[in-house]
Amino acid sequence: MKEKRFKARIVRDGSACFNPLPFDPKALFGKTRAPVRVTLNGYTYRSTIAAMGGPACIPLRKSHREAAGLDGNETLDVRVELDSDPREVTPPHDLAKALKAAPPVWAAWNALSYTHQREHVEAVEEAKKPETRARRIERAVQALRFKSI
């Protein structure tokens, strides 16, 4: 298993946080935007290395930052390892039923990246009211219906 350990200061810019990488991920993992498992403060999460014109970094979503018990300016030990496990998202039953009701929409769902599938599922699962959940499911179906055209 390819991995790298280093000390880094979390960079926080408003609500966005990331860990800059002090090494070339392409040299270690074979590509810059490698899927990785990141361990911070004893908490491990899955991510993909980002490289948007600047130095490579690892995004740190608010949910992961909070789960790791971090504020977002700490200097800490970081462990990054190549993540070769499949990335699959299982939609909740009501979302899956709505997606499968129109085969082109289900096909569009299956063509989505792991990240986009996860974002749709999180939006549905984070709804506090049933009507909000239903609205978010319908919004996801409509967005995918547009993609399937």
Q: Care to describe what's here?
A:
The chain has six helices and seven strands. With 149 residues, the chain is of the alpha+beta class. The protein folds into two domains: 80 residues, Beta Barrel (Elongation Factor Tu (Ef-tu), domain 3), CATH 2.40.30.100; 55 residues, no CATH class. Strands 1-7-4-5 form a four-stranded antiparallel β-sheet, with no helix packed on it. Strand 4 and strand 5 form a beta hairpin. Helix 3 packs parallel to helix 6 and helix 4 packs across helix 6. The longest helix is centred in the C-terminal third of the chain and has 18 residues. The protein starts with a strand and ends with a helix. The mean pLDDT is 92.
Uncertain runs: none
- Strand order within the widest beta sheet: 1-7-4-5
| CATH class wording of the largest domain | Mainly Beta
- Share in β-strands: 25-35%
Question: What general form does the structure show?
Answer: globular
Strand count, sense and barrel status of the largest sheet are: 4 strands, antiparallel
Q: How many independent structural domains?
A: 2
**Helix-strand topology string:** EEEHEEEHEHHHH
- The pLDDT mean sits at 92
Number of strands: 7
Q: With helices defined by DSSP (H or I, 4 residues minimum), what is the helix count?
A: 6
Structural class of the secondary elements? alpha+beta
What fraction, in percent, of the residue positions are helical? 25-40%
Query: At the fourth CATH level, what is the homologous superfamily of the largest domain?
Result: AF2212/PG0164-like
CATH fold type of the largest domain: Elongation Factor Tu (Ef-tu), domain 3
CATH level-two architecture of the largest domain = Beta Barrel
Whole-Å distance between the termini?
A: 42 Å
Rg value: 18 Å
